[in-house]
Amino acid sequence: MKQKQSLRSIKFTFTLLLTGLLFSSCGSVPFTGRRQLQLVSNGEVIALSLQQYQDFMRTAPVESGTANSQMVSRIGARIAKAVETFYTNNGHPSELENYAWEFRLVKENSVNAFAMPGGKVVVYSGLLPVTATEEALAVVIGHEIAHAIARHANERMSQQIALQYGGAIAGGLLGNSQAMQQLGSTVFGLGAQYGVMMPYARRQEYEADEIGLILMAMAGYDPQVAVPFWNRMAQSGSAQVPEILSTHPTDSKRIARIQEIMPQVLQYYKGAGVQNTTSTPIQTKANIPAASNTQKARTSKEWSF
Questions:
Q1: Which of 11, 28, 128, 158 has CB atoms 3.0–4.6 Å from 39's, for a disulfide?
Q2: Cα–Cα distance between 13 and 10 in angstroms, integer?
């Protein structure tokens, strides 16, 4: 009897400790205010992801010096500036410590894009015929930057730690560089696949949609182009669902959600600095390289944006 009581006491104490750890390790998402689990510091997550990103970029067929690559950089820089202004004006410039913004266009026939913690964003050239305009591409890049500043990768890694190891030993895990590297490979996925991250939760996808639209609006891009863009995205998958949609909210639900929040998003839009982007087509090439073998091997569970 005493042994059973002792076991119950230990379990109760463990539960209290775990609850306390999880409660003390919560942060909040900018703009939405949602509480999220953060067992790992943003600096640690950025460091873990940076190595995989650098490995990917060593072999990626990067397009540079073209009008399209310059456009990707231009959009990214404008939205990143909006992020920095937001944090500075709200007295939290330190939130962007360890960020080094980088926006790359990669020659790949995939209708896709992805972001890494710390401000690394990659757009595949196969996405450009679907975005078709600069402002529509800003929808995608805003969404990717939103994933980064909302620390969704941090949240995903923290959830993996809590599920696989338990909060009580999280501290020991974080001190184990090999264990963290293995966990990082599981979470980011870039080490084993061609520029594909594992899927975020749909709640995080909706959140990235909302924050991304706010950010592009703050940068002077009209967020109302998001609805026709997502309609084009859905239609582009007549024979096969685009990879960009395979693990994300259905196009109808996503569009409905965007239409619902648009009045609030438009409060951030001043129309500054962007002219005729909705009528200026993106340059596309007919000789976009076919998908690589590793890319063809992707499953529907794999993620990008």
A1: 158
A2: 5
Phi, psi values for residue 122, rounded to 5°: -120, 130
> Residues with catalytic annotation?
144
Mean pLDDT on 9-23: 41
Please list, residue by residue across 145-178, b when 16 or more beta carbons sit within 10 angstroms of its beta carbon and e when fewer do: bbbbbbbbbbbbbbebbbeeeebeebeebbeeee
pLDDT tens digit sequence for 216-250: 999 999 999 999 999 888 887 544 444 444 445 66
Q: How far is CA 80 from the centre of its chain?
A: 14
User: In angstroms, rounded to a whole number, what is the distance separating the alpha carbons of residues 119 and 97?
Assistant: 11
Note whether 16 and 28 are within 8 A (CB). Answer: no
Residue 23 lies in a domain: no
Residue 16 placed within a domain: no
* H helices present in 165-225, as ranges: 170-174, 177-188, 202-218
- Using 50, 70 and 90 to split pLDDT, how confident is the model at 155? confident
The answer to whether residue 3 is domain-embedded is: no
- Is 102 inside a domain boundary? yes
DSSP 139-152: HHHHHHHHHHHTTH
- Rounded to an integer, the average pLDDT of 164-185 is 53
> 156 is in which domain, residue-wise?
37-274
Query: Whole-number mean pLDDT of the chain?
Result: 73
When pLDDT is cut at 50, 70 and 90, the band that residue 294 belongs to is: very low
Check whether 258 has a pLDDT greater than 70. Answer: yes
Q: Measure Cα distances from 196 to 145, 169, 239, 245, 271 in Å.
A: 16, 30, 22, 13, 33
d(Cα 95, Cα 29) in Å, to the nearest integer?
Answer: 11
The structural domain count of the chain equals: 1
Q: CB of 129 within 8 A of CB of 145?
A: no
